[in-house]
Amino acid sequence: DTANTLLYLSDSLNSVREEGIKQDLPDNPEGFEPVLSVPGSEGFTLGKHYWEVEVGTWLITT
């Protein structure tokens, strides 16, 4: 309910993708609209963790 409307979460909530098309979702005052982010539902206290990221288009500017 709080992810940016440009981000699409999977039904299992374990992956996210950016489509560039804003979803028509109800307004949520707790949402992260100005930032492309998704808050996590669980935290980590110990161990090593990693994320696999697929990048479709990459632009680096100076």
Verbal overview:
There is one protein chain. By secondary structure, the protein is low in regular secondary structure. It has a domain at 1-41. 0% of the residues lie in helices and 10% in strands. The protein is built from no helices and two strands. The protein has strands spanning 7-9, 16-18. Strands 1-2 form a two-stranded antiparallel ribbon. A hairpin with a 6-residue loop joins strand 1 (7-9) and strand 2. It is globular. The model has no long low-confidence stretch (mean pLDDT 77). It holds the Pfam family PRY. This is Putative E3 ubiquitin-protein ligase TRIML1.
Going across the biggest sheet, name each strand in turn.
1-2
The counted number of beta strands is: 2
Please summarize the sheet with the most strands.
Answer: 2 strands, antiparallel
Shape call: globular
- Helix and strand run: EE
| Helix content estimate | under 10%
Structural class: little secondary structure
Cα gyration radius (Å)? 14 Å
Number of contiguous helices: 0
| pLDDT < 50 runs, ≥5 residues | none
**Content of β-strand:** 5-15%
Gap between N and C termini, in Å?
35 Å
Provide the residue-averaged pLDDT: 77
